[in-house]
Amino acid sequence: MTDPVVIAIDGPSGAGKGAVTQHLAQRTGFHVLDSGALYRLTGFAARLDGLELTDAAAVATVARTLDVHFLPRQAGDEPFEVLLRGAVVTDAIRTDQAGVDASTVAALPRVRAALGDRQQAFRQAPGLIADGRDMGTVVFKDALVKIFLTASAEIRAERRYNQLKNKDMDVSLAALLESIQARDERDSSRAVAPLKPAEDAVVIDSSGMPLEAVHEAIWTVVNKVIYSVPTNNAE
Question: Any alpha helices (H) in the chain, and if so which ranges?
Answer without folding.
Answer: 17-28, 35-48, 56-64, 96-106, 109-120, 153-166, 173-189, 211-222
